[in-house]
Design brief:
3 helices; about 10% helix; about 30% strand; four-stranded antiparallel β-sheet; single chain; about 425 residues; 22 strands
Length: about 425
């Protein structure tokens, strides 16, 4: 008597509910191949099969041909009351991606020599069908979702990211810190960039809300009076704005000061010429007096120490001059130059004319000689004190230096300026 297998029903399973569109193409791929869940009912000579059956699935090139792209055999599939469920593993991406998928199904008993072809079944793509391997879910058009969580399914409580309609946030183990990295790819055309097309706001309870090795912010316009980037306090009342070659104070307050401040013992260094368009003021450091609102800070009268640290020791004048240079440098200043002294003098004369008490740089010098410094070559020059008019601030005083300091004559005094 001839035995006949009959395939009653076939269904493609999905890992979650979704609508299947009959005309859709499969769009799943991966290096490890596609995993296709498959289930149905099987009869033998009119009776539901219970036992072990070998299955053969042939993935066809298209719906109109029997050309086989790939064949997968699955032995020893348990069948109970005709019902079975199998998983077809490792189907090549090339056989299914962007194509209508059709399977030719054949079965046999373990003791049979040949398969019995049951027919051809179209596999309807279902969103979320089980797959394996990297890159195993491809969408040729738009994929819309209310939220998306990306984690490693092989790692329990794995860190990852969650994407919603308004936010990208890190997820991971409770009480753990999880960073988010946006990393472009460099190519032959240059370095990749992470571009933000609209305003960028960085806020955090930590001390480093925005961290990057290199940040390029491009202005949306060429208006020099507007800021390209603003850095503000949490309440936005004050901060620093960066515009076209301009650093300016910003914030909602009507008046905001701008400070340039070094860290620790560090100083603010200006490497090029400094031009001040408005008024200039400085508190000056301890031991210095502010002249003309802080344009010049000048120290009290100082006398270089010689051998053994004694004041006025009988050592060569140039050695004592070098000591004066070092003493001023230790105060982050320089030996006052001829120009410095004359500016202080000019301020003193203007104050005197206005009835204001000012600083005469020659005060307390008495009959001693005065030293000037030279910022270019770090030399010391001795003031020519041949007459009484040269030791006071006078509009008609010559006040010129008399050449490099030399010899061991007299007591030489100086001041430090910055």
């Amino acid at each position: 008597m001839k035995t006949t297998f009959r395939h009653l029903a076939v269904a493609l399973l999905a890992s979650f509910c979704g609508s299947a569109i009959p005309s859709a193409h499969a769009a799943l791929g991966g290096a490890s191949g596609i995993v296709i869940p498959y289930a149905g009912k099987l009869e033998l000579d009119g009776a539901l099969v219970t036992g072990t059956i070998n299955f053969e699935f042939k993935v066809l090139e298209s719906s109109t041909t029997l050309v086989v792209c790939q064949t997968k055999e699955i032995p020893d599939v348990p069948v109970t009351n005709g019902e079975f469920a199998v998983t077809i593993p490792g189907v090549s991406e090339a056989c299914v991606k962007g194509k209508d998928v059709h399977l030719q199904i054949a079965v046999k008993t373990p003791d049979s020599n040949s398969f019995v072809v049951l027919g051809k079944q179209r596999v309807t793509p279902v969103l979320g069908a089980l797959t394996s391997g990297t890159g195993d879910f491809a969408v040729t058009d738009r994929l819309t979702a209310k939220s998306l969580t990306v984690v490693d399914p092989a790692v329990s409580d794995a860190p990852g990211i969650n994407i919603t309609t308004t936010k990208i946030s890190a997820v991971g183990p409770i009480l753990s810190t999880q960073n988010i990295t946006l990393q472009p790819k460099d190519g032959q055309g240059g370095s990749g960039r992470v571009e933000v097309q609209g305003p960028l706001t960085a806020s955090s309870l930590s001390t480093s809300a925005l961290s990057a090795s290199s940040v390029v912010v491009r202005s949306p316009d060429n208006i020099g009076t507007t800021n390209i980037a603003d850095f503000k306090a949490l309440n936005q009342t004050q901060g620093v704005g960066i515009g076209f070659n301009t650093v300016r104070a910003t914030g909602s307050n009507a008046a905001v000061d701008l400070f340039l401040e070094g860290k620790g013992t560090g100083v603010v260094v200006v490497n090029d010429d400094l031009e001040v368009n408005g008024s200039f003021s400085s508190p000056c450091r301890a031991g210095f007096t502010a002249i003309d609102g802080g344009r010049i800070c000048i120290s009290t009268v100082m006398q270089p120490r010689g051998a053994g640290g004694a004041v006025g020791s009988p050592v060569p004048m140039q050695d004592r001059a070098d000591a004066a240079i070092r003493a001023c440098r230790a105060q982050r200043a320089h030996v006052c130059t001829h120009t410095d002294i004359q500016q202080v003098c000019g301020n003193f004369l203007a104050d005197a004319a206005a009835g204001i008490s000012g600083l005469n740089p020659y005060s307390e010098i008495g009959t001693g000689n005065l030293w000037y410094g030279d910022l270019v070559s770090n030399d010391i020059f001795m003031f020519n004190s041949s007459g009484p008019d040269f030791t006071v601030c006078r509009a008609d005083a010559d006040n010129q230096s008399a050449g490099p300091a030399s010899g061991s004559a007299g007591v030489a005094l100086y001041r430090c300026c910055y």
